Amino acid sequence: MKQLLTTLELFLKSSDFDRGVRLGISIVIPFGVLYLLGYVQYAPAFAVGSFLNAPGDVPGSAKRKVNAILISIGLTMLITLIIQFSKPILPLLLVVLGLISFLVSIISVYGFRASLVSLSGLLAMVIAFAVNKETPLEIIIQVGLMGLGGLWYLLVSFVFRKLAPKKDQNQLLSDALSLVGNYLKLRAKLLTKKSTRDERFEQILNLQNQINDKHETLREIIYSERKRSGRSRYEEKQLLIFLSTVQIFELIEATRLDYKTLDKVFGEKKKYLKAAKKLNKIMGKRLILLSELLIQKDKIPNDDKLTEALSKAESSITEYINTIKLPEAREGALLLKNLYDYQEQLIQEIKAIRQAMENVKEASKLSLKRQDSSKFLTLQEYRLNVLTQNFSFKSKVFRHSLRFAIAIVFAYCIGYFFDIQNTYWILLTIVVIMRPSYGLTKDRSKDRVIGTLIGAAIAIGIVLVTQNEIIYGVLAVVSLVLAFSLLQRNYKSAAAFITISIIFVYSFINPDAFEVIQYRVIDTIIGSAIAVVANYLILPTWEADNLKDVLLKALETNKTYLLATQKFYADAQGEKLSYNVARKEAFLAIANLNAAFQRLTQDPKSKQKQFQLIYKIVTLNQTMISAVASIGNFIKNHKTTPASKEFNTLIASISKSLEASYDSIDNNNAKEKPSIEEEDHSPEKLLHKYQELSDSRDKNLQKGNTELDEATLHHLQEAFLIANHMKWLQSLSKSLYKATESYRKSLVEDSQ
User: Fold this and answer.
1) Where is the chain membrane-spanning (predicted)?
2) Binning pLDDT at 50, 70 and 90, where does residue 608 land?
């Protein structure tokens, strides 16, 4: 019960619910004012204008949000005007319907915010069919009132932003902390549960993608705010929490172990990993708790549980050494020590977040130059050539836009020739569920139908209990607020509330609520069926055919990250910024690859060409970036010795393999096959350095010198980690090349 109340409290305090309330206020107040003034007939147009322009009001910089809503207002007014004047002439209307559907849909090439502006335009196109205006004056008044409604919504949004300027930012930080906490708990399970590692891979990809999306939006907001308003105590606090969240995520990635080595070293002795596993779970729960407290503003508990769990993890290393005995225990002890060091760093970051949330003045002294922060922003291009470059059948967005236009025109023709009462409900269903990906369209279609049936059942129950129009009006507004609040969180629930809202709105027009419910359900099913079938049959886009560019980008950024780590090893201070930027780009590229693979898993089995091979390439890329991150993190947090000749030789070899993998996939850059199979003794030489240090330590032990100074321990750790990770990376890069070669051959065979 307590958890349920906490969930409800977090939802009511969330920025999603806040946006739902904004929409509710922007609709209810004009209705009330115009009713009192005796002009209630103008209220629906005003309300439609507010509703249509709400989608662009998503987290981001204030400038981009205002620009998106203003563009949305102009677009919805223009589309409504065109549709209204075209409706009397069927051939013209069908042409206009197809063109608007295509041109507005293709706007989404400019990114997520542009896709929401596109959605507003498409919704305006559909709602225009529900508006019956006879004369040009009536049409112009309708369009003008819609524009005023949009501006009114922008004003309401501006007021809400002034009242709670950091609500979106806090919500994003809270969501990011919660996701990272869940990710840490998931990674804890991988330490000891060998049988479930592959099964959890899809969960890992999903969480990584969500975390990266939150981080990208936060970068835009936080760095843009610092540029606009300078540094304030609150801004410093927000930046510290964000940077610590990013650091925690990247530390988790850096602790991706060579599980084969882990299983080999510990075998039946997995009990010595349980303390580290438990510590990960406790840290994950603490991050989730901090995410909740960031919204709730309640008192933050102390760090005693974290400190106690960390102490037990350290004790487990001592217990392992005392039980197994040196030198046999050295390899396992070093693995445990490296893991312990990462967990100690994680706790420091968690404590930094706690201090920032408690407004401890000494929590941070941050210095981030504006010109440096801009390098971490992923800027969206808005030039015309971005659009023109996508006017090709090779473009997923182009194919989707054309497919969408055909589906819309077909659906309207069905409604027109079969005299369906509310054809625009079918069109509305297609607009909100049809996506470029078949799998996502299918999932949204299923959720839409189920949500509609649930909403219809609830509406029927209410209708049977009461026929009070005041109750219907209240429920319509409340349902719309909840639907808009849940749109990004739970589409099925949102669909249910949308259905309830529409049914009660239409009950004012048609007193027979049961008839409204019946048509709503039937039209939703028809629209969903058209969307799914169109995605499957009309210019279908299967993810297996569109992986090339995403794979190339991942390989390119992995290579850049590897070389940046090499420079970082040579000059940790001078190359820090370059290393961090390369790391960020590599993580984003791998996130895009993960997202593409997830979409592949949603396609029909018959369309998942070379699934196992693609799965192998994705996992190898994932593992490589984590191994590189592990080396980089060790360099950043330890005083290291100069990079050896063997290290640089291996970097060159691994880089060569990555380049070969890139060239293998990039048919336009075919080169002579590189000789990556040549014998290379560099890994053995690196391991020899570790062996020398290990032998020296053994001699000291034989002499009775059991004390180990910190410098020697760090040198042992460095030699062990670098040697094993470089050997691991070389093996991974060669496996990756072989996989990409097989993938290339399969593509050639498919094209013949």
Assistant:
1) 20-40, 66-83, 89-109, 139-160, 401-418, 424-441, 448-464, 470-487, 494-511, 517-538
2) confident
Collapse the DSSP code of 318 into the 3-class scheme (helix H, G, I; strand E, B; otherwise coil) and give the result. helix
Q: How many CA atoms lie within 13 A of 315 on its CB side?
A: 9
Report how far residue 64's alpha carbon sits from residue 106's, in angstroms, rounded to the nearest whole number: 19
Within 10 Å of residue 64's Cβ, how many Cβ atoms?
Answer: 17
282-323 residue pLDDT tens? 999 999 999 999 888 888 888 888 889 999 988 988 888 888
CB 17 within 8 A of CB 11: yes
Residue 687: CA count within 13 A, CB half-sphere:
10
Q: What's the pTM?
A: 0.85
* Joined tokens for residue 106: 């293709």
Q: How many helices (H) and strands (E) does the chain have?
A: 28, 0
The DSSP call for residue 382 is -
Q: What are phi and psi of 671, to 5 degrees?
A: -130, 175
Residue pair 10/140 in contact (Cβ under 8 Å)? The answer is no
Query: What count of Cα atoms within 13 Å lies in the side-chain half-sphere of residue 472?
Result: 21
Helix residue ranges per DSSP H, 379-468: 384-389, 396-417, 423-433, 438-465
pLDDT tens across 97-156, in order? 999 999 999 999 888 888 999 999 999 999 999 888 889 999 999 999 999 999 999 999
Report domain extents, the chain: 167-372, 391-534, 543-751
DSSP 677-744: TS---HHHHHHHHHHHHHHHHHHHHHTT-----HHHHHHHHHHHHHHHHHHHHHHHHHHHHHHHHHHH
Amino acid identity, residue 227? K
Measured CA to CA, the distance from residue 390 to residue 386 in angstroms comes to 7
| Dist. CA 704–CA 404, nearest whole Å | 78
Q: Taking Cα atoms as reference points, which of 132, 121, 114 lies closest to residue 77?
A: 121
On whether the CB atoms of residues 501 and 483 are closer than 8 A, the answer is yes
Tell me, which fold does domain 543-751 have in CATH?
A: Methane Monooxygenase Hydroxylase; Chain G, domain 1 (1.20.58)
Q: Quick one: CATH architecture of 167-372?
A: Up-down Bundle (1.20)
Model confidence band, residue 71 (pLDDT cutoffs 50, 70, 90): very high
Q: Which has more pLDDT, 60 or 109?
A: 109
Which two tokens mark 159? 């007021």
In this prediction, residue 49 has a pLDDT band, given cuts at 50, 70 and 90, of: very high
State how far the Cα of 503 lies from the Cα of 510, in Å rounded to an integer: 10
Token reading at 5: 């109340």
